[in-house]
Amino acid sequence: MRTKPRYPESSEYRASTTWDGATGGTALTSGGQQIAFDTPAAYGGRGHGVCPDEVFLLSILACLNNTFLDFQRRFEMTLVSMHLDGEARVSFDGTGYRVVEISVSGAIVVGAGELRTGRRCLELMKEYCHLGRSLKDCVPVKYDITVTEPTTTRERKWQRSE
After folding, report:
1. Is the pLDDT of residue 64 over 80?
2. What is d(CA 86, CA 55) in angstroms, rounded to the nearest whole number?
3. pTM (predicted TM-score)
4. Is residue 60 a part of any domain in this protein?
5. Higher pLDDT, 149 or 1
6. How far apart are CA 24 and CA 27, in angstroms?
């Protein structure tokens, strides 16, 4: 059964790049955000900006983050903290480079008594992040993300102060 989306049926995103005269450039999003990018020094660049591979990986992490937050809001679950780390492994296959694996690890702390809901949000995040869905058939994505409840006095105090 096809579910009705909560958000627009489709979206379009635009960006542009301008060469910096050396080994990188500036990216501009349709929303006006600028990102300086450059070729890493190991590949002959200056390394004066983010590497496109890092932007690619950050895009996946940000999509996962925002997808989790969408489900967290839907379930009205208290979120104490969330931290995600990513790693993209790139290999030369004899003719060119290719992303061969993406690993995502992290830690999510949810409100007391909400562990089950937090774990459900994690599963939904992995299932519905549209960038992860788009990659799943061409690049394996491995996840090692924990969901816990507050364990320190500081975390409990912070949760009660909301």
Report:
1. yes
2. 11
3. 0.87
4. yes
5. 149
6. 10
